[in-house]
Amino acid sequence: MLYRRSYSVGELREKLVDIASPEEIDEILEECKRRKYVNDRVLAAFLSEKYLKKSKGFFYILAILEKRKIPDDIIKEVRENFDFNREFKIARDFFLKNRKRKKISYLIFSLKSRGFSYPTINRLMNTLVTKVE
């Protein structure tokens, strides 16, 4: 399983529940951690980077981390250390790339649906919309 994709500890636990006892699952997971086959902190950083590169924002990334069963303490770290200036630059690039083909209201909707934070969208609108109009 680990050859094809990275899993969080929570995801692996869920996959193993039908084929192993709770004690065996704990042993398997501890061995996987010891051998560095699974690392939720590294996975969270990888997923954050992956989705930022795909022009996804803060809320989208947090939702993905929750879906992938990353522990709450690691999600809290991601939340506290999130680079909102980088998110702004990504949102700005997305906006500038699409502004000639799409209406501003559509672009704002797109940014929201891509999970960009409201302060980022507001900052973008305050800096770019007045220049565009």
Q: Would you kindly provide a written description of the structure presented here, covering whatever features stand out?
A:
By secondary structure, the chain is mainly α. The protein has two domains: 1-38, no CATH class; 46-133. The chain has helices spanning 9-16, 22-34, 40-53, 58-67, 72-81, 84-98, 104-113, 118-132. Helix 3 (40-53) runs antiparallel to helix 4. It is elongated.
Keywords:
133 residues, mainly alpha, 2 domains, 8 helices
Gyration radius over CA = 19 Å
β-strand percent reads under 5%
Uncertain runs: none
Structural class: mainly alpha
Query: Main β-sheet: number of strands, strand sense, barrel status?
Result: none
Q: What is the tally of beta strands? A: 0
What order do the helices and strands follow? HHHHHHHH
The mean pLDDT is 94
- Summed up, the domain count is 2
**Inertia-based shape:** elongated
Distance between the termini: 52 Å
Amount of helix: over 70%
Write a brief caption for the model.
Helices cover 71% and strands 0% of the residues.
Write the layout of secondary structure elements.
Elements (H helix, E strand, L loop, with lengths): L8 H8 L5 H13 L5 H14 L4 H10 L4 H10 L2 H15 L5 H10 L4 H15 L1
Helix pairs in contact: 3-4, 4-5, 6-8
